[in-house]
Amino acid sequence: QVQLVESGGGLVQAGGSLRLSCAASGRTSSLYDMGWFRQAPGKERDFVAAIRRSDSSTRYADSVKGRFTVSRDNAKNTMYLEMNNLKSEDTAVYYCAAGLVGYSDSPGSYDYWGQGTQVTVSS
User: What is the C-alpha to C-alpha distance for residues 77 and 96, in angstroms, rounded to an integer?
Assistant: First the structure.
């Protein structure tokens, strides 16, 4: 079992920045690929970014490329999402996820999910 806890969400003005963290616990948590997804009210859960365990390769949704950066600290079992130049359309609940064969933009590729953290961007 892997437990994931997100933190760092909040209210920020458009153009501002936030840094989300996802702390993973569990005996094998360092073995998982990890990702960030987000879900706005009334919408599906969308892929944001992913990072591969083996070589820390990253991939991003087109909507966040150049603004968001995903990283991980395997020693701390923590993944981060640095979000810059935030826009109102970034408002959503952000979820972190872990999967043995993750590194995917599909939610179905992930085995474990956090409870989510709210990000609200005011225009």
Answer: 13
Q: Are 120 and 64 in contact (CB under 8 A)?
A: no
In the chain, DSSP assigns E strands to 3-7, 10-13, 18-25, 33-39, 45-51, 58-60, 68-73, 78-83, 92-99, 112-113, 117-122
pLDDT tens-place values along the chain, 123 residues long: 899 999 999 999 999 999 999 999 987 767 799 999 999 999 999 999 999 988 999 999 999 999 999 999 988 999 999 999 999 999 999 999 999 887 899 999 999 999 999 999 998
Spatial separation of the C-alpha atoms in residues 65 and 79, rounded to whole Å: 18
Q: Measured between alpha carbons, how far is 119 from 112 in angstroms, rounded to an integer?
A: 21
